[in-house]
Design brief:
Blueprint (H helix, E strand, L loop, with lengths): L1 E5 L2 E8 L7 E5 L10 H7 L4 E5 L16 H14 L5 E6 L1 H12 L4 E7 L8 H14 L5 H8 L10 H11 L3 H12 L4 H4 L6 E6 L7 H10 L4 E5 L6 H4 L1 H14 L6
Parallel strand pairs: 3-4, 3-5, 5-6, 6-7, 7-8
Antiparallel strand pairs: 1-2, 2-4
């Protein structure tokens, strides 16, 4: 296990292949998950890339720090980690709140971003009332009562079956996230609006979504793509909000097509 002190939190991270001269992908996971959600994608993409993964503060094995957070807090954690690892350029690939964080990384340090994969995300997600209600409910009652409604947005009905061990594992992963960290990141999403920042994105960008995403529906993700000059948009069939778990093969193939179109990556 590897940890880096960033401000008041020890950030848990993992790397693979970053010292071998390959393009580097920096993954940013979604609300209520840890970086193990990327395992199948890394397996599908193989050794063509180096990888940086980290648990956001308040998630997984990373420290909670001092919630509530801002998206800038999360972006600073990744920027400091990349600097620590001497990664000068990265393909920043963010899922859900990770996509907001990816947009913030580009806005704060555009020179470190080679390309963006903005997955199941938007320039603004939800309303303050929605997030405040979720925060108040979870602080009062814990995450347990929210798990089923969240799973319905994360995954399609065929995935949410009692005999699917992977689905059971995802439920456990969410249930074990620290309440303060989860709610601290809810506050960051509540306060985030990257509508103007999206218009400043000047690197190759792919916006991707599951066709049955209940958290950031296709029309919302398509609206983000419309703000970014020259961006591409892909919809993954038979998929909800977490395509790296539900449809990793189709998801990885779609993103690989985008990555291999980048001038530096063409064979």
């Amino acid at each position: 296990m590897k940890f880096l002190h960033v401000g008041d939190a020890a950030i848990h991270y993992r790397t693979a292949g970053i010292a071998q001269g390959k393009p580097v992908i920096a993954f940013i996971n979604s609300l209520g998950t840890d970086f193990r959600i990327w395992d199948a994608v890394m397996e599908a993409l193989g050794d063509d890339y180096g990888y940086v993964l980290h648990d956001k503060r308040g998630h997984g094995l990373s420290g909670t720090g001092t919630p509530p957070y801002s998206i800038d807090d999360h972006a600073d954690d990744l920027i400091i980690l990349l600097d620590h690892l001497k990664v000068e350029k990265a393909i920043v690939w963010g899922l859900s709140v990770g996509g907001l964080i990816a947009q913030a990384v580009h806005d704060k340090r555009p020179g470190i971003v080679e390309a963006l994969v903005l997955s199941n995300t938007a320039h603004k997600i939800g309303t303050p009332d929605m997030w405040n209600t979720r925060i108040d409910t979870i602080l009062a009652n814990g995450l347990g009562g929210m798990i089923d409604p969240i799973m319905e947005r994360w995954f399609t009905p065929p995935f949410r079956t009692a005999d699917n061990a992977l689905y059971a594992g995802c439920r456990t992963m969410l249930a074990r996230q620290p309440v303060d960290g989860y709610c601290g990141t809810c506050a960051a999403i509540r306060d985030a609006d990257y509508t103007e920042a999206a218009g400043r994105i000047a690197v190759p960008t792919l916006c991707v979504v599951g066709d049955q995403d209940g958290s950031t529906p296709p029309d919302l993700v398509r609206s983000l793509a419309g703000l970014i000059d020259g961006s591409a948009f892909v919809e993954i069939p038979g998929c909800g909000h977490i395509p790296c778990i539900e449809q990793p093969a189709a998801y990885s193939a779609a993103v690989r097509t985008f990555l291999t179109s980048l001038p530096e990556h063409r064979a």
